Structure formats: structure tokens, C-alpha cells
Predict the structure.
Amino acid sequence: MHLYLLYIDPGSGSYILQMIIAAVLGVSFFFKSFWYNIKAFFTGKKVKKEDEKDKTE
């Protein structure tokens, strides 16, 4: 087995870590938005968008 093929340099390691963090944050944002839409559907409330929030303040 060629062990020298298993080497990961620091640049690749930090890039992989960055991709993992971005994926976790992206998935959490997706499910948060999805949950608010489901909740708004069953409660009958409208989900405010960012543009509408700024105009009401």
C-alpha cells in the first residue's frame, strides 16, 4: 500500500474544513427556512421577507 498518497497538506486540510463548515451552515439554514414555511402554513401567518421587515421598522 502506498502511504505517501494519504498525505494532506495544510492548504487542502483547511479547504476541506471550510467546506464542511459551509455545508453544515447551509443545511441548517435550509431546514430553518423550511421549518418556518411549514409552521407559517399551518398557523396561517405570512412569513415576512427581509424587504418587508425593513419597510415596517
